[in-house]
């Protein structure tokens, strides 16, 4: 009977023994007394990944992500619990894993491919494809110890994707590649995904997790905090990542208990929207409200009252392509701040950052100090060049309150808005470049 899942993790824990010295390790061999401290890397983690799913794992450094992936791949054994996998696994774990530095690139390709289940004949048939993807033809017969980190990743990824994996596991390895190669890798990952393979993906790049994955899991302190849609999980991860240590501990316990943090009182609740005026009909939808507002911890300032206005000053959230609009919000400062900068960002529902702006240049030429108690109004004017669809707006303020330059407050998904196209011309993609083809008969 064919199983419905590719990976099943049941109540898995992993404990490591930490010895203070080699002497303590030796004593442990001949004594029943405990001569070590126990570090719990993973604590009772359970989840199931179905066939064809792409699942992202996010979490702070030390949360147990890499340990979990190594156990799924079989390079580590759980202290307790059970892991079951169905299908050929290809994994990119820490840089250089599975490679012998003394062997040449060619020798490592054959060795690594054999570990992943290919015969020498199968590897030989795919060698040119591996070499072409890695783009290191001139160095393939050089020892891997002479390779740069980027070259090593190229070769490791090229091998992994050419063994026709049923399960592909990637642990942040692509972060060391250049941008063009990263895009090449992600395009291949998307192709593997389209072929029905299961993908387990670990990354600190939240946007990549949101755009690539079907589901996400948040680990922290060795525990599974939550799982769900990539956007909701990434939002909780970012909130945890940016919170002060004492607040992060409380938030972590709330997430484990399934308690949602209350939204900022300065931001409108879904029910708190103005009824549209008659002249605003078609431009303001009282039901179009962001349900994913994420207000970070205030560190000296607080953003409130985000609004989109048309040129008549009316509140809108249904925009027309080609029209001019203003995005405004207020910032109240609770501490004196220097080098203050404001920012905004427009994103898609999957978290792709389309564009935005900061006030760095204006602030450098004007306001440099904002006193505690001040309330500033921030306004951005822009022409809507977006094609039809739903979009989200972020708001932010940064500055130095005596502890170095950092975010004073950020609100993710502060507003959502919809764009309708008035032109009969059909635009492709997300941005309308207002370009139309011209043609003439040449033959």
Automatic annotation (TrEMBL):
<comment type="similarity">
    <text>Belongs to the ABC transporter superfamily.</text>
</comment>
<dbReference type="InterPro" id="IPR015860">
    <property type="entry name" value="ABC_transpr_TagH-like"/>
</dbReference>
<dbReference type="GO" id="GO:0140359">
    <property type="term" value="F:ABC-type transporter activity"/>
</dbReference>
<keyword id="KW-0067">ATP-binding</keyword>
<dbReference type="Pfam" id="PF00005">
    <property type="entry name" value="ABC_tran"/>
</dbReference>
<keyword id="KW-0813">Transport</keyword>
<keyword id="KW-0547">Nucleotide-binding</keyword>
<dbReference type="GO" id="GO:0016887">
    <property type="term" value="F:ATP hydrolysis activity"/>
</dbReference>
<dbReference type="GO" id="GO:0005524">
    <property type="term" value="F:ATP binding"/>
</dbReference>
<dbReference type="InterPro" id="IPR027417">
    <property type="entry name" value="P-loop_NTPase"/>
</dbReference>
<dbReference type="InterPro" id="IPR050683">
    <property type="entry name" value="Bact_Polysacc_Export_ATP-bd"/>
</dbReference>
<protein>
    <submittedName>
        <fullName>Teichoic acids export ATP-binding protein TagH</fullName>
    </submittedName>
</protein>
<dbReference type="InterPro" id="IPR017871">
    <property type="entry name" value="ABC_transporter-like_CS"/>
</dbReference>
<dbReference type="GO" id="GO:0016020">
    <property type="term" value="C:membrane"/>
</dbReference>
<dbReference type="InterPro" id="IPR003439">
    <property type="entry name" value="ABC_transporter-like_ATP-bd"/>
</dbReference>
<feature type="domain" description="ABC transporter">
    <location>
        <begin position="24"/>
        <end position="246"/>
    </location>
</feature>
<dbReference type="InterPro" id="IPR029439">
    <property type="entry name" value="Wzt_C"/>
</dbReference>
<dbReference type="Pfam" id="PF14524">
    <property type="entry name" value="Wzt_C"/>
</dbReference>
<dbReference type="InterPro" id="IPR003593">
    <property type="entry name" value="AAA+_ATPase"/>
</dbReference>
